[in-house]
Design goal:
Strand content: under 5%
Distance between the termini: 70 Å
Helix content: 55-70%
Largest sheet: none
Number of strands: 0
Structural class: mainly alpha
Radius of gyration: 19 Å
């Protein structure tokens, strides 16, 4: 018989704290991409690909998203309707991202970015979601292996999405299964240990909650908005 706390978790539509933390992550991502766009349009000269500050900041942002998503998925209802809705949104979003970035960036298009990762992580994890301890062990092993083993034969695009390639591929966004699926599995497994009173805590920052509830939409539209903003500013100052 399910405990009251488990029942509450399954029936609760959204968890405000999770939404607010996701809002923090999406805010960091928008700021990061704004700096990237300023460099792309030559208004700034941030070394986004090599400078340790920018490289580590991107890693922190991705890690924040992955951990929050793992916890959220661990606390989410087990019903098929929630799963189908999540997978459908991620699939179409990933397809749009790949198509649009192919026309924008050519060979550097996004073929396995953050959204692609969340789609595969959801599909792979769903059938085994209830096996928390095995998933925790597998997650730790994936993280360790990602730092220990790298193989040249994994470098082609049809394999490097797994994440054990010896060189980072040339793409505008990259979130491979190793190590990120490991962190996702760890977060999902540990979600069961979160006490209900912690989940009731709120930052009470409405804008963060709003951004967290609509994080996928913001992810899809923020770059076009930033591009339009920068290009409009550029046209105004050159008149």
């Amino acid at each position: 018989m399910a405990s009251a706390s488990n029942t509450d978790r399954q029936t609760q539509a959204r968890i405000p704290l999770i939404d607010e933390l996701r809002g923090v992550a999406i805010t960091m991502m928008v700021i990061f991409h704004f700096c990237y766009d300023l460099t792309y349009f030559h208004y700034a000269h941030f070394n986004m690909l090599e400078n340790p500050f920018w490289v580590h900041w991107r890693t922190v942002i991705v890690a924040f998203f992955v951990v929050i998503s793992g916890i959220s998925f661990g606390l989410a209802p087990d019903g098929s309707s929630h799963f189908i809705k999540r997978v459908s949104k991620l699939f179409f979003s990933a397809a749009i991202i790949s198509i649009v970035t192919y026309f924008l960036f050519g060979d550097r298009f996004i073929y396995f970015g953050v959204i692609h990762f969340f789609l595969i992580a959801t599909l792979v994890t769903k059938p085994f979601k209830q096996f928390k301890k095995p998933l925790l062990i597998i997650g730790f092993l994936m993280v360790v292996l990602s730092f220990v083993y790298h193989f040249e034969f994994m470098n082609p695009k049809y394999l490097n999405w797994i994440g054990l390639a010896s060189t980072k591929p040339a793409t505008e966004d990259y979130a491979p299964l190793f190590p990120w699926l490991g962190y996702f599995l760890i977060s999902l497994s540990l979600a069961a240990l979160i006490k209900p009173n912690i989940l009731k805590f709120k930052l009470n920052v409405k804008v963060l909650g709003f951004m967290g509830r609509h994080s996928l939409l913001i992810y899809l539209i923020h770059q076009p908005i930033l591009f339009i903003f920068i290009l409009t500013y550029k046209s105004l100052i050159t008149v």
